[in-house]
Amino acid sequence: MAKKQKHGDKQFETNCVRTPTEKEHNRSHSTPIYMTSSFRFDSAEQGRAMFAEEIDGNIYSRFSNPNTSEFIEKMCVLEGADDGFAYGSGMAAIFSGMAALVSSGDHILASRALFGSSYQILTKILPRWGIDFSFADLDDPSSFEKGIRKNTKMLFVETPSNPGLDIIDLEWLGTLAKKNHVTLFVDNTFATPYIQRPIELGADLVMHSATKFIDGQGRAGGGIIVGKTDLMKEIRFFSRQTGPSLSPFNAWIFSKSLETLSVRLEKHCENAFQLAEKLEGHRDLESVKYPFLPSYKQYELAKKQMKLGGGLITIVVKGGFDRAKKFLDCMNLATISANLGDSRTIVTHPSSTTHSKLTEEERQQVGILPGLLRISVGLEHIDDITSEILQSLDQSA
Ligand code: PLP
Question: Of 260, 279, 311, at which residue does a domain stop?
Answer without folding.
Answer: 260
